[in-house]
Design goal:
Layout lengths: L10 E2 L24 E8 L6 E6 L5 E5 L20 E5 L9 E6 L7 E10 L2 E11 L2 E7 L8 E7 L10 E6 L5 E5 L6 H7 L7 E4 L5 E4 L3 E6 L7 E7 L1 E7 L5 E6 L7 E5 L4 E2 L23 E4 L3 E6 L13 E5 L4 E5 L2 E3 L2 E3 L3 E6 L6 E6 L5 E5 L17 E7 L14 H8 L4 H14 L4 H10 L2 H12 L6 H7 L5 H12 L7 E3 L14 H4 L8 H10 L5 H14 L5 H11 L4 H18 L32 H12 L5 H10 L3 H11 L6 H12 L3 H14 L11 H12 L4 H11 L5 H9 L5 H13 L5 H10 L9 H13 L1 H13 L5 H12 L2 H12 L8 H9 L4 H10 L18 H4 L5 H9 L11 E2 L2 E2 L9 H4 L2 H9 L12 E5 L4 E9 L3 E5 L5 E5 L3 E6 L15 H12 L5 E3 L2 E9 L14 E3 L5 E3 L1 E4 L6 E2 L1 H4 L5 E11 L3 E8 ...
Parallel strand pairs: 1-27, 16-20
Antiparallel strand pairs: 2-30, 3-4, 4-5, 5-6, 7-8, 8-9, 9-10, 11-12, 12-15, 13-14, 14-31, 15-16, 17-18, 18-19, 19-21, 22-23, 23-24, 24-27, 25-26, 28-29, 29-30, 32-33, 34-35, 34-38, 35-36, 36-37, 39-51, 40-43, 40-45, 41-42, 44-51, 45-50, 45-52, 46-49, 46-51, 47-48, 47-50
Length: 1225
């Protein structure tokens, strides 16, 4: 959304050139800005250098942490600067809008202080010093000025035991909350061996801390959010499973927001509302998404902002800026050089939000990292000002900026806080500046009961944020304020009731607690106020009820059970956040209680009944892409009693849900409820869930539902449902499926995944039967390989022999190739070699054989010999060289570099050593030529691994908007040093298989029964877990080293010019509504889309639209549905939401002969031909503002039936969620 269009053009221009930068940087001048703001350079180098965070005190002075000495083992061209890594205080003493005085508060905080929070000390109205908190892993440092001279007299570790020494994923993000506690963040880096040995912490943990009160917390759950008393006592962990949560912000009501960082290309940067005790999703096992939001037990983000590197975050609680920004979150993104603004609207259990931009940088060196509100409500913004960001990179130790932003015409005056009187202290508590608020709060609490009347008056008459601040202060008045907080539980404002409940009963004291000084686990705070808070189970506000659910997590069922029953029934069946709170409160409850609770939901559902229309089902959150989120104004689908039971069963994963689920399935067979039940059963490990699914399979005549049941059985019968594998019901179901042409392929794949070798003779017969569809026979031979059924080896060789002389391979040949590697060992490798060197086999089959042969070390060396002896077909040269140069065995890759050409060191194809980068960076270049370099057909071509606007392969990051993040110099660094900064989702994995093969690639899907690996050549390989001996993450990128060896300097310059132009966002479709399979001609795609309609499928049955999800790399595999015989088709619907009318570009990567329509109008699809493999289909996509219906027809008959859909749009698009997805009709 764009709620403040006048802010979009506010820019931060490059301001100064330094010898460290080789790119052109403009001279110092005020940045360009549109109404209603002025943005000015307030400070620059040498006064400030490499700012990492800032804070502003009550007198308007800017405190800044500087980081100059950072990870020199990664940045070897830089030397340690003695005395650097400082905390400075900057002042404008003459009121001209420029800092003119600098005081070094502390120095040599090596390496790199990150995070900053100022606690001022005032005595009798006079400034007496400050306590300053900063992160410096493994420590949270406390630096104290005890005499008011702005110099740190004391320095000590307030807390110690955090991973991330010399790492920006360490401890950082300090901010004080309205409760006077220090909140801070810890990225996902672990305690190193060196730090563990030196300090005595446990190696490999993220947090291993004993606080000042003897509480020992230990956690290894990646990024972590914490809080502690300012004296170092009562350390608590609030949430886990972030990536690099650089900073946190706490609003006046005690809500905690986190800025969390993603990697290049994943479009997963996010802002999160932290749920106490919540798992926030980073590295979720079994998830295809970056944040795991389709998995129960994960707290979803509030908003995703695409690519970037978010740093600072704050909640604006002033009134100087426009009203649209009051109460909004502001997230500073160094990657995109923006400050994003997110209005926060209470909805359901938390908030809804959107995205706007307060400022947008235009210089490639600008790297805003933090923003803080000044006492007058204006903003100070820190700019790291560097070519590099992320991946532990920096390229400069000499520059930095601080900007000041205020409305046009605003005159800043020197603040003169009055901390001597109650009136002045109340005014301080009402300040938009955090340090001023904290000082006012502290002094009011020091007054004790004398401050109570004034605070009560503020609570009575103030705005909601001021009322909440007063309430937090009243809560800490000795012996007097608790009654005021209890009374606030009945306040008319739900935000105040929620804040009061949070003050009284927030329960994080035992989370990740290893032990305490007295050996006792602290009881839940709710026990002290149970009689006062339990009536809130009937509160009309879902946010209040959600806070009560969290407060009751550890309260015994005898005391909390009835309230939790009410709260469960009150859940609207649509809000994911409330459901996650219920999971935290219910999942470990006793069996009898859960049985009663879940059965009561089933009874309520059957009494009420339900319709067959659209209904809200798990995961209750848009999971189309990493950046998907439910925006303000989007309504979720309706819920009913049955769907609510499904949601609870899915979330809890407890076997007590099986019988209640059976109750609702017996009463009604509404397709969406039945499909939702499948989703829930998948989360339950008890084999009785499989029995219920088998009963349903045998009772229905719906191929789509039966295929889904087979998929579930295949993934679970190998694991927790193994006891049902040889049951009579299982035999009946699989026999029926193998007898059905519509179910046969899915049944074969399920049998293979489940390891049900008893069916091998039947599968062998299917593979031999030439009356079967090719897709059936191919699935059978591939399954036999997976099942290690040796008699199938001869048949695999026969299918390969039948491919001789053909121009293209059939599915049988591809499947046989895969099976042969499992069945024939060294003999199979010999066959692979014969295929590769022979002139008689199709080229596509040879290409498929290369990575299979090279997966064995011995055969990889044999392949290298064949390459050197020129015994390979010329057209295979790029694939073979690429495979060997990037082999997981370092010995083989080194040998390949030595023997296949390419000396050590970066030289261009012209033979020049790349020493003087200026020749490349500043010489003439042409982006059009650079695009040709990017896309050329060679083993080192960029397009082999990268996508740009839907074209190319997903092996490395998507580069569609890389020009927004990096300038030319930093782009060149990553080309020269591909392993210098590897993103999480771009990490390669090496798999050692039981048969001796070694494979390397990206994991695109991971389930309970196996993984799908995508190799450097783009091939997908399904590998069962039973075949994997070892899985090792690689520190080396899949991108070729010494890439520039094959380029001239002009090639490099042109390529950099092209990459610099890539700034257009892309939207990749990760979720569809699917209709089919249908007989050809059964559906009219020009008619308005009706997702509730039932359609004749051409066989006499009716079918309807259902949701399907693509893989992690956005590939939707339709081969099981369509098979290989012509005459079938499926239709895919994508609800596209455009902010305004525009012409976008649709890119469809597929082998199928597809058609497409938007809003009922056919699209003119075209594709490049004449190459060995045709390019993707492309078409202009005329979108109207608001919802649009994109429909894609995919027919059967192609070898590889599936697609990747990408939409290129200047503004970026969203895909419909909930009710917005029903259609645009």
């Amino acid at each position: 959304m764009r709620s403040i269009p006048t802010l979009l053009a506010a820019t931060m221009l490059g301001l100064c050139a330094t010898s460290a930068h080789t790119e052109t940087v403009s001279k110092t001048k005020p940045p360009a800005t549109n109404d209603p703001f002025d943005i000015n350079v307030w400070a620059e180098e040498p006064m400030v250098v490499n700012p990492t965070t800032i804070d502003v005190d009550s007198r308007g002075r800017v405190w800044v942490t500087e980081g100059l000495n950072y990870r020199f083992f990664r940045n070897k061209e830089y030397q340690k600067v003695p005395g650097a890594d400082r905390i400075k205080i900057l002042e404008d003493t003459d009121g001209d809008g420029k800092a003119d005085k600098v005081t070094v508060f502390a120095e040599d905080i090596f390496p790199v202080p990150m995070g900053l929070a100022i606690e001022e000390i005032w005595k009798d109205g006079k400034y007496a010093g400050a306590r300053v908190y900063t992160g410096n892993s493994p420590d949270v440092l406390l630096l104290e000025d005890t005499d008011g001279d702005d110099k740190a007299d004391k320095r000590r570790a307030l807390l110690s035991g955090f991973g991330g020494h010399d790492h920006d994923h360490g401890v950082h993000g300090m901010a004080f909350g309205p409760d006077g506690k220090l909140y801070f963040t810890k990225g996902d880096s672990q305690i190193s061996k060196e730090t563990a040995e030196k300090k005595g912490f446990k190696q490999g943990e993220v947090v291993d801390v004993v606080d000042a009160s003897g509480r020992h917390l230990r956690a290894n759950d990646l990024g972590t959010l914490l809080r502690v008393n300012p004296d170092g006592t009562n350390l608590e962990i609030l949430g886990t499973r972030y990536r690099n949560n650089y900073e946190t912000a706490v609003d006046s009501f005690g809500n905690v927001f986190v800025s969390d960082n993603d990697d290049d290309g994943n479009r997963g940067v996010r802002m999160v509302w932290n749920m106490d005790g919540g798992n926030h999703g980073y590295r979720t096992p079994g998830s295809r998404l970056h944040w795991g939001e389709e998995i129960p037990g994960i707290v979803p983000k509030l908003v995703g902002t695409g690519n970037g590197s978010p740093c600072g975050i704050m909640i604006y609680e002033g009134d100087l800026l426009p009203k649209e920004l009051h109460g909004a979150a502001m997230q500073v993104d160094a990657g995109t050089r923006t400050i994003n603004t997110h209005p926060l609207v209470r909805q359901s259990g938390t908030f809804r939000t959107g995205i706007d931009h307060l400022i947008e940088g235009t210089d490639a060196l600008q790297r805003p990292v933090d923003v803080v509100t000044a006492p007058d409500g204006s903003l100070f913004i820190a700019d790291w000002f560097d070519a590099g960001v992320g991946g532990h990179r920096f390229t400069d130790q000499k520059t930095g900026r601080i900007y000041h932003l205020a409305p046009k015409g605003h005159q800043t005056s020197e603040p003169k806080p009055d901390f001597a009187s109650i009136k002045g202290q109340l005014e301080a508590l009402a300040s938009p500046n955090p340090a001023t608020r904290l000082a006012g709060r502290t002094l009011l609490i020091e007054r004790g009961a004398k401050a109570r009347p004034a605070l009560q008056e503020l609570f009575k008459e103030g705005t909601p944020p001021l009322r909440a601040r007063a309430l937090f202060a009243l809560a800490d008045l000795p012996e007097t304020g608790r009654g005021d907080v209890i009374a606030a539980l009945k306040d008319d404002d739900p935000q105040i009731r929620e804040a009061a409940l949070r003050i009284l009963a927030r329960d994080v004291s035992a989370y990740k607690l290893l032990k305490t000084a007295d050996g006792k686990v602290p009881p839940p705070p709710a026990l002290e106020v149970l009689d006062e808070i339990l009536p809130l189970a009937d509160d009309p506000d879902p946010g209040v009820r959600r806070e009560l659910i969290l407060a009751l997590r550890r309260v015994p069922t005898e005391q909390a059970g009835e309230a939790l029953r009410k709260l469960t029934h009150a859940w609207d069946g649509r809000d994911r956040y409330t459901l996650e709170a219920l999971r935290l409160a219910l999942r470990e409850r006793d069996s009898a209680y859960l049985t009663s609770l879940l059965q009561s939901l089933a009874d309520e559902a059957t009494k009420q009944g339900w319709e067959s229309g659209p209904v809200a089902l798990p995961p209750y959150y848009p999971v189309t892409t990493n950046e998907s989120f439910p925006a303000i104004g989007e309504s979720p689908l309706p819920a009913n009693g049955a769907s609510k039971l499904i949601g609870l069963a899915w979330s809890l994963g407890r076997p007590e849900a099986i019988d209640p689920m059976g109750t609702i399935l017996e009463k009604n067979d509404a397709p969406r409820i039945v499909g939702g039940a499948d989703i829930a059963f998948e989360q339950i490990d008890d084999p009785r869930a499989a029995e219920l699914l088998l009963d349903r399979f045998l009772a229905i005549d719906d191929p789509n539902r039966q295929r889904e049941i087979l998929r579930l059985l295949g993934s679970r019968l190998a694991g927790p449902w193994k006891a049902m594998r040889d049951s009579e019901k299982s035999r009946k179901a699989f026999s029926a499926a193998l007898d059905s042409p519509e179910l046969r392929v899915e049944a074969i794949r399920a049998l293979a995944r489940a390891g049900m070798g008893a069916y091998a003779p039947q599968l062998l017969a299917l593979a031999k039967d030439d009356k079967q569809e090719l897709s059936t026979r191919a699935a059978a031979i591939e399954a036999l390989g997976r099942l290690k059924h040796q008699p199938a080896g001869a048949m695999a060789e026969q299918f390969l022999a039948e491919a001789e002389g053909e121009r293209r391979s059939s599915p049988l040949a591809f499947a046989a190739l895969s099976a042969l590697t499992s069945l024939k060992g060294s003999e199979g490798a010999k066959t692979l070699q014969e295929i590769i060197v022979s002139d008689d086999y199709p080229l596509d089959l040879k290409r498929r054989a290369i990575p299979l042969l090279a997966s064995d070390r011995k055969n990889a060396r044999r392949l290298m010999t064949l390459y050197k002896e020129k015994k390979l077909p010329e057209e295979l040269g790029p694939e073979v060289s690429y495979t060997l140069l990037n082999h997981p065995d370092r010995g083989i890759s080194r040998q390949a570099r030595s023997e296949l050409g390419g000396a050590a060191g970066a030289k261009t194809a012209g033979g020049k050593q790349l020493v003087d980068m200026r020749r490349v960076l500043q010489g003439a270049s042409d982006a059009t030529r650079g695009r040709a370099v990017f896309a050329r057909e060679r083993s080192d071509a960029c397009i082999r691994c990268h996508r740009v606007q839907g074209v190319g392969n997903w092996v490395g990051p998507d580069l569609s908007s890389i020009g927004t993040k990096y300038g030319k110099k930093e782009l060149l660094y990553h080309i020269l040093n591909p392993s210098g900064a590897i993103g999480y989702d771009d990490v390669a994995w090496t798999l050692a298989l039981a048969d001796g093969r070694v494979l390397t690639g990206l994991i695109t899907d991971e389930t309970a029964d196996g993984i799908v690996l995508k190799t450097a050549l783009g091939e997908r390989m399904a590998i069962p877990n039973d075949d994997i001996d070892e899985k090792v993450v690689q520190t080396k990128s899949l991108m070729p080293e010494n890439l520039v060896e094959s380029m001239t300097e002009q090639d490099i310059a042109d390529l950099l010019a092209y990459l610099s132009t890539l700034k257009v966002p892309v939207s990749e479709v990760g979720q569809y509504h699917l209709l089919g399979p249908l007989s050809a001609g059964s559906y009219d795609a020009t008619a308005p889309v009706d997702l509730e309609a039932r359609v004749k499928d051409g066989t006499g049955r009716e079918t309807g639209w259902r949701e399907v999800t693509s893989s992690r790399d956005k590939f939707l595999d339709l081969s099981t549905l369509l098979g290989s015989a012509p005459g079938k088709e499926v239709y895919l619907h994508v609800p596209v939401i455009a902010s305004r009318a525009e012409t976008a570009r649709l890119v469809l990567t597929t082998d199928a002969a597809i058609s497409a329509w938007v809003n009922g109008k056919p699209l003119e699809l075209s594709r490049e031909t004449g190459k060995d493999k045709p390019g993707p289909f492309e078409a202009n996509l005329d979108l109207r503002g608001g919802p649009n219906d994109l429909v894609i027809r995919v027919p059967s008959g192609s070898v590889n039936t599936g697609l990747v859909a990408t939409i290129v749009s200047q503004r970026g698009l969203r895909f419909g969620f909930g009710a917005a997805a029903l259609s645009a009709k």
